[in-house]
Amino acid sequence: MNALMRNVLTQSILMVAIILIVGPVQAQNPAWCAIMDNDGSTQCNYYTQQQCLQTLSGIGGRCILNPAGSAPQPAPIPPFSENAPGLLPLQLENPGPPPGLGAVPPPPNN
User: Fold this and answer.
1) How far is 38 from 57, CA to CA, in rounded Å?
2) 21 domain-assigned
């Protein structure tokens, strides 16, 4: 077996191994759960919200993010401050020179 064929065979085996390892990892924690209205059961085996909604079509229920799923968590909402609306005008103001540097003459041109 020449080196090129051995290289192709090695890469093929590596690709198959990666697919076999990654596939089950994704299957463990789907991102969405369906809570059925007809019997109250919960099924957490949906990878997209659309899959979940299609399951509930006709029987009713709701889709929620799987608490044990691998979906990205929503970004936290920054805290609100009552002073926040007044900060923008202050941030847009020119603060001028730092204290103590206002009266210093400019450097001479050489």
Assistant:
1) 12
2) no
67-84 residue pLDDT tens: 886 655 556 666 666 666
Q: pTM for this one? A: 0.40
| H helix intervals, the chain | 3-28, 49-56, 84-92
Query: 68: which DSSP letter?
Result: T
Q: Find the domain containing 43 and state its range.
A: 28-69
6-30 pLDDT tens trace: 776 777 776 766 666 665 554 568 8
In a domain, 49, yes or no: yes
99, 101, 103, 107: CA torsion to nearest 10: -170
Question: Could you give the number of structural domains in the chain?
Answer: 1
Check if the beta carbon of residue 63 is closer than 8 Å to that of residue 53.
yes
Tokens at residue 99, please? 């204290």
